[in-house]
Write a structure and sequence with these properties.
Layout lengths: L1 H47 L11 H15 L13 E4 H11 L17 E4 L4 E4 L8 E9 L5 E8 L5 E11 L12 E6 L1
Antiparallel strand pairs: 1-3, 2-3, 4-5, 5-6, 6-7
């Protein structure tokens, strides 16, 4: 009887430790998804703009629209971005961090397309991107659900909503681990691989 009680107690202790580890993993993933909100929000906003089209990392126009929105609406969440000035100042390293979060296929910042020249320009002397002012309005993005897959990737569902909480656009995101996470100051644990 004592052996049986000892085995049951050991089993309960193991289960408790296991569930504690799972809770810690869920908590970390929740924090990681909060940190990814600038990228998710910017992709949703870019996709919702009439004529912008679907998520497309091969389109310089789409990429720079997403990066502009990240810098304007979320720049204050990234170290080194100056949002209290006009135009907003985004260091090249911060813009690359934004691009790595929004596009898993990122392999370098491209030239700013003519269609975005009124909104974004690069200052060669300072090495900063300068963003013209814009208003995000009263819309907001919420993460509706997320789950970690067996291979370590994450599937997340997010919605862009109007000021009353009504969904404007919802998308499912596939996120992969950000290979540049070890870079100092990079707050994004994941990179968007696809968005539909």
């Amino acid at each position: 009887m004592k052996i049986l009680l000892s085995l049951l107690l050991a089993l309960l202790l193991c289960l408790g430790a296991f569930s504690g580890a799972l809770a810690a993993e869920d908590e970390q993933l929740s924090r990681d998804m909060d940190a990814m909100l600038p990228a998710l929000d910017s992709v949703l906003r870019a996709t919702a703009i009439e004529g912008a089209g679907a998520y497309n990392p091969d389109s310089d126009e789409y990429v720079w629209l997403v990066l502009y929105l990240m810098g304007m609406n979320w720049g204050s969440s990234h170290e080194g971005v100056q949002t209290d000035v006009e135009p907003v100042v985004v260091p090249k390293t911060a813009m690359a961090d934004f691009a790595r979060a929004a596009f898993a296929v990122f392999d370098g910042l491209t030239e700013i397309p003519e269609s975005m020249a009124q909104s974004v320009r690069y200052d060669e002397a300072s090495g900063n991107y300068l963003l013209a002012g814009s208003d995000a309005g009263d819309s907001a993005t919420r993460v509706d659900a997320f789950k970690q897959n067996e291979n370590g990737s994450v599937t997340a569902v997010a919605s862009l909503c109007d000021g009353e909480g009504n969904q404007i656009l919802g998308m499912t995101f596939e996120l992969t681990f950000n290979l540049h996470l070890d870079k100092a100051g990079n707050p994004f644990a994941y990179s968007i691989e696809s968005a539909k």
